[in-house]
Design a protein that fits this description.
Strand order of the largest sheet: 1-2
Distance between the termini: 8 Å
Number of domains: 1
Oligomer: single chain
Radius of gyration: 17 Å
Number of helices: 3
Number of strands: 2
Order of helices and strands: EHHHE
Length: 78
């Protein structure tokens, strides 16, 4: 099948979708807080620090597991 037949993504793991909005809020709040206190996301060291703090905030509120299959796949049309 050619790529032009790919029309949209199909969700394969609806359970992970249930926490998407809550997860986005945690990331947004932590990112905002880190920038507000002067952490600099424009440097590699600053990005590393911010990403570690965001990961820590996520692990405080969510159970994380390694994904063993794709979250999405392309729906195909003929």
């Amino acid at each position: 099948m050619k790529d032009e037949n790919k029309t949209e993504l199909e969700r394969l793991d609806p359970e992970s979708e249930t926490c998407f909005d809550d997860l986005a809020v945690v990331v947004s709040e932590e990112l905002y807080a880190r920038i507000a206190v002067g952490d600099n996301p424009s440097t590699p060291a600053g990005c590393q620090l911010i990403s570690e703090l965001i990961a820590d905030a996520i692990l405080d509120g969510f159970v994380i597991r390694q994904r063993t299959s794709p979250r999405y796949r392309w729906k195909h049309t003929e």
